[in-house]
Amino acid sequence: MKKLTRRSFFKRTTAAAIGTMFLPNLFSRSANNKLNIAVIGVGGQGWTNISNALRTTPENQDNIVAFCDVDDVRATRTYEAYPDVKRFKDFRVMFDKMGKEIDAVMVCTPDHTHFPALMAAMQLGKHVACEKPLAHNIWQLRTLQKAAHYYKVITQTCNQGHATNGIRLVKEWYEAGLLGNVTEVLAWFDGPMFHPRGYFVKPDSYPPKEMPIPETLDWDVWIGPAQYRPYNACYIPKYWRGWYDFGNGELGDWSNHTLDAPFWSLDLGMPDVAESEFRPETPEGFVNDSSIVRLDFPKRGSKPPVTLKWYEGRLKPEIRPEFNIETLSDNGMIMVGDKVSLMTGGRPNNPKLLLPAEEWEEFQKNPPAKTIPRVEEENPQREWIDAIKGVGEMPGSNFDYSTRLNEMALTAVLAQKTNSRIEYDAKNMKVTNHPEFDRYINEPVRDGWKYGEEVWK
Predict the structure, then answer these.
(1) I need a labelling partner for 145 at 20 to 30 A (CA). Which of 118, 119, 310, 452 fits?
(2) Number of domains making up the chain
């Protein structure tokens, strides 16, 4: 990175949004053109990220040099598969002891600890990839975008749908004029489902009763920047997503998949209004069983205003005759055009124009030309690694893009969890009709967990 001036880096990252861009070799510590990677959070999605990052030929395979996880039990599968990799429970200790041996870091922890882990890595000049959703609040998202430029590192959010052929087809078909003007987006998701084998459970009481902390778990480090609370098994290993102090519910999570295609294709930007249209009574701080949230986007250049509605908890939009379908899948999205509408599943992998069957079949024989470069194996982790090595393009879900996608989603989450209408001033990161919501835009953090102020100076 020493060969790149800050100005040239800005030019390169901007160019990545509009065309193909190849990067110079951005690391020098590893021998034999192999990247030294540390992984923070190695259970669950950590395993998936490791597998995807190492999916390559043996002669080009990169090195995993450090693991960090607060829970030895949750990390068992990964630790057994890679017994020689050094292990830590606190990423701050890992960086103190191994900072010079690490080129890049993958962060796969719960949402509320993404930001401090990413910032700690970027401050040391490490390239970073992170599980979605990228951060827990809007100020963190803005800070991560600034930090990527400030520290001149290559970034990626691993919302795998953005690396697919499917999302590129959506954008290509829209830009070819097939849909016409799109003024409405409908999206739905069947969760949250509350079951011990799933990602959400309801506790016996609110707040949950204190339980003994397992000996294998560092509970204080798991809490991280959030306000301390006693341990209860209803939070971990994966139920934290149901608590707004740690996650942002199904909407904060799955919007990275389901809303990625319309956000990218329509250049939606930020809504000026987000409103909770339906949500049953819910204990404070806990996710809702079901909801409907509406986002209003203003006109963007020649593109008309757009209304987006999100349905969850097995709620779905009505099927219109012009959609040429009889049923809706459990999860999905429809971009409603004045010429024809387009539908995807919960992820944008297999888009379909909602034409009569014969017309759809005929369309598939002669679709528009593919104008957007494809990602090899649709693998966002390898896309990121190739960019660091200088043999690939800037990752498509780099922080210039993914912070905006996630900010759009978090405005909807804010309306959902407060069950209110918010009027959003994106320029100033303010909810103009609810100034008390500033506490959600930039949440307070515990001592020892403050990061990011330096990039705003």
Answers:
(1) 310
(2) 1
Integer Rg of the chain from CA: 22
Cβ neighbors of 447 (< 8 A, separation 6 or more) are none
How far, in Å, CA of 383 to CA of 424, rounded? 34
Q: Is residue 107 part of a domain?
A: yes
Query: pLDDT, tens digit, for every residue of 147-198?
Result: 999 999 999 999 999 999 999 999 999 999 999 999 999 999 999 999 998 9
CATH number at residue 71: 3.40.50.720
Whole-number pLDDT of residue 120: 98
> With the C-alpha atoms ordered 131, 137, 140, 146, is the resulting torsion angle positive or negative?
positive
DSSP letter assigned to residue 161: G
State pLDDT tens for residues 95-106.
Answer: 999 999 999 999
**Pairing relation of β-strands 306-312 and 182-189?**
parallel
Position 18 in a domain: yes
In angstroms, the first-to-last Cα distance of the chain is 22
**Average pLDDT over all residues of the chain:** 93
Cβ(342)–Cβ(353) below 8 Å = yes
- Amino acid sitting at position 85: V
Q: Would residue 420 count as lying in a domain?
A: no
